[in-house]
């Protein structure tokens, strides 16, 4: 149909499982390799001070207290709010005071920041929602394996 | 077989792979996938409505496995077709996705190695990350390729004299002028450039130039600044059942690429979706 004037789109109804299918943008808003060491991976534990569900990348601010050391202020960068909200994320997901164990690419400049891959909460809940190309590769491929197995099973006669 | 996909886009894909990869038996299987008759070849595709990506609708059963894989890697036209041929091979059912994708990535690397010019490699070595202007919520640094292949939904409006491409990503909007056949000689460069287009059979073909130089992460995941001479050709067509949109994007930039750099994306019709407002918050100063 070719219209002669604009129409009005209908309301979104998206039902998505939190964290499932957390693929990364084909073209990240800024290139991760510019800011992060994408060949390395670190894990740190801390307590959330603020979660910003924003574009171009969601951000988690958290405090890390090394044994016998002073508190370090960190932040982690994830996928865009536009993607995460459609996967069921909300600002209530990581309230201030929440313990997190977070893994991702470390910063090139050695600062207290990372490009997150996966977040584990104190109760064992695992969150994904990372941003960069490659950061969730292993997890995504496992998801796809499961989907392929289902498709193969459907093709196989009883 | 019944025709599920428009010939205009997909058969071109296969032809490109055949030409560049030689005789690869598994590609015969891709031929089956691609061997479909044109869909209403003489009339424009119905592109109207909202189209979504894997990134926001992973669970939709209409995706092909190749779509899911390419959501992460950003496949070239050739890479997508090659991957599809591997997945269609019954032998692949015994292999993990990781193994199949490794084969595809090796194939892709061989192709990419020939794509960059020496000047492009030099530009990559000299690239300064601070050139990525988009960190301050001004989308200036996000060029046409990032916009066209954005992870967020796209809405298309077709008019007699123009096509409107409206993106959730950066709340951007492009007008493709169907009543023009050239770019104005005195046109000012802009982030998304100037676009005119036409229908070739059922396929919308969009030509864009007058682009501001922008960073892209292709084809080897290293940042590369496209030149002021870069231009683009996009092709949009819809499957016979109206459920999927095939999009190919060619970036032509001779100082960087030895041949047009092509990307392929499949999107799904999402009549119940609407674009959300892209609210951006500056992260300048935290790097």
Quick summary:
Chain A has 158 residues and is α+β, with helices and mostly antiparallel strands. Chain A has three helices and six strands, in the order H-E-E-E-H-E-E-E-H.
What percent strand of chain A? 25-35%
Number of strands of chain B: 11
**Could you list the spans of chain A in which at least 5 consecutive residues all have pLDDT below 50?**
4-28
Low-confidence stretches of chain B: 1-11, 13-38
Helix-and-strand structural type of chain A: alpha+beta
Polypeptide structure, described:
The complex is a heterodimer of chains A (about 160) and B (about 290). In chain A, strand 5 and strand 6 (about 125) form a beta hairpin. Chain A has about 160 residues and is an alpha+beta fold. Helices cover about 15% and strands about 25% of the residues of chain A. Chain B has helices at about 5-20, 25-35, 65-75, 75-90, 95-115, 120-125, 145-150; strands at about 50, 155-160, 160-165, 175, 195-200, 205-210, 215, 225, 230-240, 245-250, 260-270. In chain B, the strands form two sheets. In chain B, strands 1-2-3-4-5-6-9-10-11 form a nine-stranded mixed barrel. In chain B, strands 7-8 form a two-stranded antiparallel ribbon. Chains A and B meet through helix 1, helix 2 and helix 3 of A and helix 3, helix 5, strand 2 and strand 7 of B.
């Amino acid at each position: 149909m070719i219209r002669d004037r604009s129409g009005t789109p209908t309301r979104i109804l998206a039902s998505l499982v939190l964290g499932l299918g957390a693929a990364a943008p084909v073209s990240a808003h800024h290139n991760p390799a510019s800011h992060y060491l994408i060949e390395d991976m670190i894990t740190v534990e801390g307590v959330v001070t603020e979660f910003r569900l924003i574009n171009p990348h969601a951000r988690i601010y958290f405090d890390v207290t090394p044994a016998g050391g002073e508190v370090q202020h960190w932040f982690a960068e994830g996928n865009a709010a536009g993607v995460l909200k459609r996967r069921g994320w909300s600002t209530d997901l990581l309230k201030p005071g929440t313990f997190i164990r977070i893994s991702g690419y470390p910063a090139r400049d050695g600062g207290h920041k990372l490009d997150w891959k996966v977040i584990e909460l104190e109760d064992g809940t695992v969150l994904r929602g990372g941003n960069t190309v490659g950061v969730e590769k292993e997890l995504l491929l496992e998801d796809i394996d499961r989907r392929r197995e289902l498709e193969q099973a459907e093709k196989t006669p009883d | 077989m019944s025709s599920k996909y428009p010939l205009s886009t997909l058969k071109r894909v296969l032809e490109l792979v055949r030409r560049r990869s030689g005789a690869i038996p598994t590609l015969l299987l891709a031929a089956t996938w691609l061997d479909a008759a044109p869909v209403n070849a003489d009339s424009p595709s119905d592109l109207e409505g909202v189209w979504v990506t894997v990134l926001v609708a992973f669970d939709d059963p209409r995706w092909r496995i190749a779509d899911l894989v390419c959501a992460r890697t950003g496949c070239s036209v050739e890479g997508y077709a090659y991957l599809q041929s591997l997945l269609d091979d019954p032998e692949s059912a015994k292999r993990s996705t990781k193994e199949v994708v490794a084969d595809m990535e090796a194939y892709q690397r061989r192709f990419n190695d020939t794509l960059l010019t020496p000047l492009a490699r030099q530009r990559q070595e000299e690239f300064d990350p601070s050139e990525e202007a988009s960190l301050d919520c001004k989308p200036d640094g996000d060029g046409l390729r990032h916009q066209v292949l954005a992870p967020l939904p796209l809405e298309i409006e077709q008019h007699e004299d123009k096509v409107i491409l409206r993106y959730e990503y950066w709340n951007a909007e492009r007008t493709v002028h169907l009543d023009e056949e050239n770019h104005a000689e005195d046109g000012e460069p802009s982030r998304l450039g100037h676009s005119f287009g036409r229908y070739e059979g059922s396929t919308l073909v969009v030509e864009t130039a007058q682009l501001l130089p922008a960073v892209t992460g292709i084809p080897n995941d290293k940042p590369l600044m496209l030149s002021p001479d870069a231009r683009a050709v996009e092709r949009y067509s819809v499957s016979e059942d109206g459920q999927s949109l095939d999009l190919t994007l060619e970036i032509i930039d001779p100082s960087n690429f030895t041949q047009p750099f092509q990307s392929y994306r499949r999107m799904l019709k999402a009549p119940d979706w609407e674009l959300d407002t892209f609210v951006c918050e500056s992260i300048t100063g935290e790097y």
